[in-house]
Amino acid sequence: CKNLTYDTTALPTAGIVLVFVDEMWSALMRTVFSILDAGPIELISEIILVDDASQKDHLGQPLDDYIRIFNGKVKVVRLPERKGLIAARLVGYENVTGEVIIYLDAHMEVNKGWLEPLLHRIKQDDTVIAIPHIDSIKHETFEVFHNAFGNRHHHHRR
């Protein structure tokens, strides 16, 4: 993908849904900022943060207050009681205005050029579910494991 250039004006827009429960502030914000920094911003209709009934205080009013810096690009949707990942993702889906929906974990980082290949593939065939190549970060050391294409061995964070 590195050697390809994409006409971003021809690609569909994407709404990005992050479901979280009691997520660390730094992890959640790292995810949000990496998405906005990597862009392209014109292809991101919004980032929907779906709170699946978190109990942590920092994810309440402080989060609502903080996301104002994003001028409406980031929105929080709160579930009054725990619904689970799939039901929470469906609530996120209902709030996306983009042509494509992307579900990401709430504790990850994307790199420049992550979005265009996914949207390009979906534009080619809108029945496709495009799944990105994901590297793992060892939570004890923050060492990055570059998972070779086709390598299904993941270092899960527990």
Automatic annotation (TrEMBL):
Domain of life of the source: Eukaryota
InterPro entries: Glyco_trans_2-like, Nucleotide-diphossugar_trans
Protein name: Glycosyltransferase 2-like domain-containing protein
Domain Glycosyltransferase 2-like: 16-147
Pfam families per the UniProt record, alphabetical: Glycos_transf_2
PANTHER family: N-ACETYLGALACTOSAMINYLTRANSFERASE (PTHR11675), RICIN B LECTIN DOMAIN-CONTAINING PROTEIN (PTHR11675:SF126)
GO terms, biological process: protein O-linked glycosylation
GO CC term (a single one): Golgi apparatus
GO molecular function term, any single one: polypeptide N-acetylgalactosaminyltransferase activity
Keywords: Disulfide bond
